[in-house]
Amino acid sequence: MRRWHLLVGVLVLVIAVTSAVVYQQRGNQRTQTRAAGLLRVPEVRAPEGVRIRVQVLNATKTRGLARRATMLLRDRGFDVVENGTLQQQRDTTLVLDLSGHPDWANRVAQIFAPAKVTPRADSSRYLDIAVVIGSTWRPPSQPFYP
């Protein structure tokens, strides 16, 4: 009888350890699959050899959002020449196409998804695109400069 209890105890222990190992491996596979999915997303960048001048304006209550958006755009090859804050609050990010290049504006809108692209004529030709950051945009969780 005593051997029977010992055998059942060992069997339960083996099943518990095996279950823990299988559970841990499945969790690692899910994490690797998610990471691989994130790596497959194409990174939207400015076209090669083109200088796209961008203005970034923060229209939220979150401090420093224009600065983080500026760093993100510069990392992607855009030339951010100005950033600042607006008093008026917005929910959705607005990308203004000031130079008549909808492809450029769409590239920027993909970075700040969900964003609305609106063409707007600008006679000064100082800026190509203006980005008004809305509260629905979340900056990437990864540090820009580790």
Describe this structure in words.
- The relative contact order is 0.17.
- Helix content is 41%, strand content 19%.
- It is elongated and about 95 Å long.
- It is of the alpha/beta class and 146 residues long.
- A five-stranded mixed β-sheet has the order 2-1-5-3-4, with helices on one face.
- The chain has helices spanning 2-40, 65-75, 102-111; strands at residues 53-58, 79-85, 93-97, 115-119, 129-133.
The total domain count is 2
Main beta sheet strand tally, sense and closure: 5 strands, mixed
Mean pLDDT: 84
> What is the CATH class name of the largest domain?
Alpha Beta
Class by alpha and beta content: alpha/beta
CATH architecture of the largest domain: 2-Layer Sandwich
Number of strands: 5
User: What's the order of the H and E elements?
Assistant: HEHEEHEE
Return the CATH topology of the largest domain: Alpha-Beta Plaits
- Enumerate how many helices there are, as a single number: 3
Keywords for this entry:
146 residues; Alpha-Beta Plaits; five-stranded mixed sheet; 3 helices; 5 strands
Briefly, what is this?
The chain is of the alpha/beta class and 146 residues long. It has helices at residues 2-40, 65-75, 102-111, and strands at residues 53-58, 79-85, 93-97, 115-119, 129-133. It has 2 domains: 1-41; 53-133, Alpha-Beta Plaits (2-Layer Sandwich), CATH 3.30.70.
